[in-house]
Amino acid sequence: MEHLFAVWPAVADRITSSEQILLMSDFDGTLSPIAGRPDKATLPRGTREAMEALLSVRRVAVVVISGRALRDIKHKVGIRGITYAGNHGIEIEGPWLKFVYPPAVSLRPAIRRLSKRLRSAMAEFEGAIVEDKGLTLSVHYRLVRGDRVKALRKACEDITSAPQAEGKIRVTEGKKVYEIRPGVIWDKEDAIVLLMNAWAPSARGRKNLAVFLGDDLTDEGGFRVVNENNGISVFVGEADRETAARYFLRSPAEVGQFLRRLFQSVRADSA
Question: At how many degrees (to 10) do helices 108-122 and 149-165 cross?
Answer without folding.
Answer: 160
